[in-house]
Amino acid sequence: MFRKKRGQKGFTLIELLIVMVILGLLAALVGPRMFGRVGSAKQKAAEAQISLFGTALDTYRLDVGRYPTTAQGLQALREKPDDTPNWDGPYLPREIPLDPWGNSYEYRSPGDHGDYDLFSLGADGRPGGEGEDADVVSW
Asked: What CA–CA distance (Å, rounded) separates 45 from 86?
């Protein structure tokens, strides 16, 4: 068998296996907790973006006298619609982002829940859902 000679440094196979087992246990315990928070972080990001859009929509309404129509959509916050004389935008500093799941935000005005409805359909891209699939709404 191989034996360590004086002055030789290194790890034995047993020491390496023990370290690998410990790392595996840590990953098994910590990993699910960390990855479980990704969904809630994306939902919070969508809520923050919807809130920012709401502020921009309110500023648009103060200038123009109404919210953008459904046909104009959120793009009216970046580019002046043809029939909007008092437009004083752009109301958003950058292009309109996709939601955290890579889908477009849905906008309707007039909305079913107020002057406008602004929402993301969540991770599944379909209405309703629970957990990460739940819709993130402005109302």
From this structure: 31
CB atoms closer than 10 angstroms to residue 82: 7
- C-alpha to C-alpha distance for 59 and 14, rounded to whole angstroms: 66
Q: Using only C-alpha atoms, what is the Rg of the chain?
A: 26
Residue 84 and residue 76 in contact, taking contact as beta carbons nearer than 8 Å: yes
Residue 139: burial class (beta carbons within 10 Å; 0-12, 13-18, 19+): exposed
Give the span between the Cα atoms of 8 and 60, in whole angstroms: 74
Distance CA 19, CA 108 (A): 56
Give 64-104 pLDDT, tens digit per residue: 999 999 999 999 999 999 888 899 989 999 999 999 999 99
Its pTM stands at 0.70
